[in-house]
Amino acid sequence: VQLQASGGGLVQTGGSLRLSCTASKRTFSNNGVGWFRQALGREREFVATISWSGSATSYAESVKGRFTISRDNAKNTVYLQMDSLKPEDTAVYYCAVSRYASGTSQVSNVQYWGQGTLVTVSS
User: What H or E segment, with its residue span, contains residue 24?
Assistant: First the structure.
């Protein structure tokens, strides 16, 4: 399974970006999917996750109210809408397919990782 993440880039504080993650085959439909991020010199951390049906979502406290995760199983694609971006959101963002239908906030529960897309927020 290959996961292709896209949509990263350079944006000013307060701006928005929309990340996309597309799977190479129909593997999304039965699995939860998450977004994680890793800033330079820091450990990879949870950002958001969505269940297989899209009915349940969960967010890290640091992004709650600013980021929105969604999915389109017909397109094998998961999205992360990021609004009101801050410099501390600067990181490489990774999409991840969970072992579980409910999604996950734990790195250890990730079955497949995407290649990452860089988000840089300037102050």
Answer: none
